[in-house]
Write a structure and sequence with these properties.
- By secondary structure, this protein is mainly beta.
- The protein has 14 helices and 72 strands.
- The strands form 19 sheets. Strands 58-57-56-59-70-71-72 form a seven-stranded mixed beta sheet. Strands 1-2-55-30 form a four-stranded antiparallel beta sheet, with no helix packed on it.
- A hairpin with a 2-residue loop joins β44 and β45.
- The longest helix is centred in the last third of the chain and has 16 residues.
Length: 993
């Protein structure tokens, strides 16, 4: 088998072979082991952000704890779970007769109002639609429920008959009206509007302000049964307290400062029952006297035992390339241009590919001119990502843009004079190919758009954008700036805002795109306006459509293979004869370590030799000064410390891969990060990155990848995939298997029952799942939780473990006894830049950060020093201390915390060190800090037999630093050498291409 290309990095050979091999179908046919479930019971007597309701029938208590409903006798005692794990309820409320319970439930993928029997044995949906209905409250006669809904666009107050029927809108103001409570006389509804509490007369529509704006935010109003008092919550710097309004006078009731963000329930005109400071509390409204109602609630958790998927890091047999990025079909329909293995390729359809580029630069986004004579693409060969135009016949090329930043995603105008493109600031621009003159078409925003596509007449650009929490089509006229949004059809979303379209057909009659993870074509007028309904042309997982010049055929990707589809839906395979082999060096390296922290013992060993043969550690033995040196590379670390390489377990590596380009991997390695775990990325770029890194075609850490986060019908991130039904879920799971994911992440609005199915499927494949949720995720087998405090679908901003005084026993016991690791993602750790300002001017930062990243890092330093404004993700020293206190409490409860950063949302590479320094500064034991970025991530990834410690037989992913990180964690950033897969690099080598 003859390699097409061979390169060497530090003595390691990398080969590409052009042969035909089966894809992951072989893996798909293997027998999958069945996970062995274990039921773990966890009993708690405290709750975090628990919501309480009291029954008018018998005074019994209903409470929502971590998304599970429980009932409890009025005097307290043992709670009984009702309603099931997948109900996903919130904001419970008893009917006036106590026979029914209203909740907002996310069971079907939207917040809808459900009515349950008082014992939870039966339920029915009261509201429906592609909208969120929240915060239910009963009318005094029990015939209607009022709620908040966004069904008319903004948030308004609505009512619905409990027997069913169409809801009726009550408020119509352009402001948001939320959290209603029905007055006892049935004539009015009070609600929150901004920082006030208003009341609307149902007969006249007249609005009265009850509680004017004051200090702090107001929430959760609740009328007393006699209509004389209105309780509500007020949030200020000191926490969240319970307040009562009566006859225009407001006073605090009770001494609790962590009152949970739900309505207090009046059990009588004199008493309020609510959740606060971890407990269920009953307070006398007149005196403020309070008592705690004790409870014991037991959660039944499913925790799976499964065999991690087999990963053979030593196998050098050829593997079929699946990381095919941005395939572009030539106008004559005969050739495809694409990115794979860190280069651009050209391949006749079904033929043998040949390299278009052959260098270490980061190339992306090949685009054909309409006449097929030129290819535009982006490359950082000049230092930053710029646009280049290449003559296909002669190979001559020229640089078209040279902006201080990154330019990518080029698209040719039909006349060949102009390229539309995008940049690091998410702007859409055009450049005159002849003159280089750049014009902005659309401003940048936080939301990343999809690639642009020109209409047949060159007057309009189409691209995917986020609008109304869906991926819709924007049509913009560059000449005038006129713009409009087009629905891709049936209330759906373009699958991702990347390579999934929309793409104009050359004749201008169609827009092609992926929706629900299959290909569709939408008939359009010349300006892109729809003229009919979309037509589905594939039934399999389909991405990255590209038209032939005759507008009859679409090339696309299907789970790592190329396919063509006609507009009429005839699909054919397109074989791609391209393979790679994993890098495995044939070298021998001996490291004389003055100190070795092996990843297990608290204290380092001293004066040892680490013998590395190929990519693995052969021996660790006392230092031998007389060791033979022939054929061996010696690294003198006699005054240094060797540790396992570091792992960032929460990273979105593809989020800014086009902006960082080749520098990203070298930057991560230069800070000792030898492995990263993706928690959501553009899937084909992720697969390409994993293959390129494994083959040695790109320098960077080991990459444990996933694809786009699986999400509900509302999306924001460009690396989320909205999932609308079971059929599509099956397609997403086929992608998980065939593209050999290392992890599956489900996001904020993904249904609980689908999360359980996804987890069971992933465990059969031997891979884990993760989400932002503790419960019910931990009850359905989800393996880990991202962030200490992460965004969620609930209206109070953070996951249920977030409160002013918590978390409480429920969170700590569930995490500890249930065995669910948390990732740290300590954005507040940026405050530690004030302790070491030199981090900002480090040579690695100067050489490998983009201009924009340097500016952001300098701004973060000024914030930390109190000399400049802070961004919305920046924290304070007090917050950093509180975050680490939570980590300490989790660790004390037996939970595991692993080091993750959310980079590049936090500073790439540096943020991992700041996370570790923050933990150490505020009291986490040094061994626990170090293992959070070494041994524990390896266990979570299922690769402990290969990574995480420095032991014979393990992969040689090693960090060599000055100082002793077991006594000074900052020493980890003093990198002198880093070995990944047995290949040594100095920092100087990494920062110099």
């Amino acid at each position: 088998m003859t390699p097409a290309t061979s390169r060497r990095f530090g003595g390691a050979a990398m080969a590409f072979a052009l042969v035909v091999l089966p894809t992951s179908a072989a893996r798909a046919s293997e027998t999958e082991p069945t996970p062995v479930p274990e039921t773990v019971d966890v009993t708690v007597s405290e709750g975090t952000n628990l919501a309480v309701a009291t029954s008018p029938r018998d005074g019994s208590i209903l409470f929502d704890l971590q998304g599970q409903l429980f009932t409890l006798p009025r005097e307290g005692g043992t709670a009984k779970a009702i309603g099931g794990t997948t109900l996903d309820p919130y904001w419970p409320s008893f009917s006036p007769d106590g026979k029914q319970i209203a909740v907002q439930s996310f069971a079907d993928g939207m917040f809808h109002i459900r009515l349950l029997s008082h014992d939870g044995r039966s339920s029915r949906v009261l509201t429906r639609g592609d909208n969120d209905d929240t915060c239910p409250a009963w009318s005094p006669d029990g015939t209607r429920v009022t709620f908040t809904s966004d069904r008319a666009g903004g948030e308004d107050i609505w009512t619905v008959d409990t027997r069913g029927g169409e809801p009726r809108r009550v408020t119509t103001a352009p402001t948001a009206e939320t959290q209603p409570t029905w007055a006892p006389d049935g004539r009015s509804i009070a609600y929150v509007q901004g920082n006030t509490i208003e009341s609307v007369d149902l007969a006249t529509g007249a609005v009265t302000t009850l509680v004017p704006a004051g200090q702090g935010q107001v929430a959760a109003p609740s009328w007393s049964p006699d209509g004389k008092s209105l309780s509500f919550l007020r949030t200020g710097q000191g926490g969240r307290t319970l307040q009562v309004w009566q006859a225009g006078v407001v006073r605090q009731v009770g001494a609790h400062t962590d009152v949970f963000p739900f309505p207090a329930r009046w059990s009588s005109p004199a008493e309020l029952v609510y959740g606060a400071n971890g407990a269920i509390v009953a307070t006398q409204a007149a005196t403020g006297d309070s008592k705690t109602i004790p409870f014991r609630a037991t959660f039944h958790l499913r925790r799976d035992h499964y065999k991690p998927k087999a990963r053979d890091f030593d196998d050098t047999r050829p593997r079929s390339v699946q990381g095919i990025v941005g395939p572009a079909l030539s106008p004559d329909g005969r050739t495809v241009a694409f990115k794979a293995l860190n280069d651009l390729w050209l391949a006749p359809l079904g033929g043998i590919p040949k390299k278009l580029t052959d260098d270490d630069a980061y190339e992306i986004d090949p685009a054909w001119s309409r006449d097929g004579t030129q290819l535009a693409y982006a490359s950082d060969k000049a230092g930053t990502e710029d646009l280049y135009v290449r003559d296909v016949a002669t190979g001559r090329e020229r640089r078209v843009t040279s902006i201080d930043g990154a330019e990518f995603a080029p698209a040719w105008s039909p006349d060949g004079t102009t390229l539309a493109f995008q940049d690091h600031a998410n702007q859409t621009l055009t450049v005159d190919v002849a003159t280089g003159a750049v014009t902005r078409v659309l401003p940048g925003s936080f939301s990343v758009p999809g690639k642009p596509s020109w209409s047949a007449d060159g007057k309009v650009l189409a691209l995917a954008v986020t609008a109304a929490e869906r991926n819709q089509i924007q049509l913009v006229t560059p000449a005038t700036g006129a713009s409009k949004i087009v629905d891709p059809g049936q209330g759906g979303s373009v699958s991702t805002r990347g390579d999934d379209g929309p793409v104009f057909s050359p004749d201008g009659r169609w827009l092609a795109y992926s929706m629900d993870s299959v290909l569709w074509v939408l008939p359009v007028a010349p300006d892109g306006t729809p003229t009919g309904h979309p037509r589905r042309v594939t039934t399999e997982a389909s991405d990255a459509p590209s038209w032939s010049g005759d507008s009859k055929t679409l090339l696309h990707l299907h789970n790592g293979t190329l396919r063509t589809a006609t507009v009429d839906g005839v699909v054919k395979d397109v074989p791609l004869r391209l393979t790679y082999t994993q890098q495995r060096p044939d070298t021998r390296v001996v490291i004389h370590a003055g100190r070795l922290w092996d990843g297990r013992d608290a204290r380092p060993k001293t004066d040892v030799d680490i013998v590395v043969v190929g990519n693995r550690i052969r021996r660790i033995e006392p230092h031998r000064p007389d060791r033979p040196r022939e054929g061996t590379r010696f690294i003198d670390a006699s005054k240094l410390t060797v540790t396992p390489g570091l792992v960032d377990v929460h990273n979105h590596q593809q989020m800014r891969s086009k902006t960082f380009g080749d520098r990203q991997g070298r930057l991560l390695l230069s800070y000792g990060i030898t492995s990263t775990r993706s928690t959501g990325d553009a899937v084909y770029r992720a697969v390409e990155d994993r293959e390129s890194l494994a083959a040695g075609a790109r320098i960077g850490p080991r990459y444990f990848m996933t694809g786009e986060m699986l999400e509900g019908t509302r999306v924001n991130w460009e690396f989320s995939r909205p999932v609308r039904d079971e059929r599509q879920l099956a397609l997403e799971l086929s992608r998980v298997k065939e593209l050999d994911y290392d992890l599956v992440k489900t996001y904020e609005r993904f249904r609980v029952d689908w999360q359980a199915k996804t987890t069971a499927y992933a465990h059969r494949l031997g891979i884990g799942t993760t989400s932002h949720y503790l419960y019910p995720a931990i009850a359905t087998g989800v393996d880990s939780k991202e962030h200490l405090f992460g965004p969620s679908k609930w209206g109070f901003g953070f996951a249920r473990e977030s409160s002013f005084g918590g978390p409480y026993e429920d969170v700590l016991r569930l995490a500890g006894q249930g065995g669910m690791p948390f990732s740290s993602t300590l954005f507040s750790s940026g405050t530690l830049l004030a302790d070491d300002p030199a981090m900002v001017t480090d040579p690695r930062v100067r050489a490998l950060f983009t201009t924009q990243d340097k500016q952001a890092l300098n701004a973060k330093l000024l914030c930390a020093q109190g000399l400049g404004p802070c961004g919305f993700l920046d924290g304070t020293p007090a917050q950093a201390r509180r975050d680490v206190e939570l980590i300490k409490r989790l660790l004390a409860a037996g939970a595991v915390v692993v080091a993750g950063t959310d980079a590049p949302l936090d500073t790439t590479a540096l943020s991992l060190h700041l996370n570790l320094r923050s933990m150490a500064k505020y009291g986490v034991e040094p061994l626990q800090v170090l293992q959070s970025a070494t041994l524990h991530p390896a266990r979570q990834l299922g690769v402990e037999k290969d990574l995480g410690t420095v032991e014979p037989g393990k992969l040689a992913d090693l960090l060599i630093v000055g100082g002793d990180p077991t006594t000074d964690i900052a020493a980890l950033a003093d990198v002198r050498w880093v070995l990944k897969n047995g290949v040594p690099h100095t920092v100087a080598e990494l920062i110099t291409r």
